[in-house]
Description:
Largest sheet: 4 strands, antiparallel
Low-confidence stretches: none
Mean pLDDT: 84
Structural class: mainly beta
Helix content: 10-25%
Number of strands: 8
Radius of gyration: 14 Å
Strand order of the largest sheet: 1-2-3-6
Shape: elongated
Order of helices and strands: EEEEEEHEE
Number of helices: 1
Strand content: 35-45%
Amino acid sequence: MGKSIILPHVRYIDNGDRKGMMFHSQVVSSQGRCYTLGCDKMDVSGLCAGHKMSRREFLERYCGVEPETGTHKE
């Protein structure tokens, strides 16, 4: 997948800019509509519209990794 990071509940897509896009991917369906869990930026269909975020910020927040050292936070 190149520079993309896919986790069960979030995805990071590196589009070549300084900031890539993070997408919430945990979706539930209710009464025929989709809703993305934990997201405050949904499109009209209820899916995550994406959030600008650096790769470093994504790794720290969702993977618990500090990019410089590659070690897990304790």
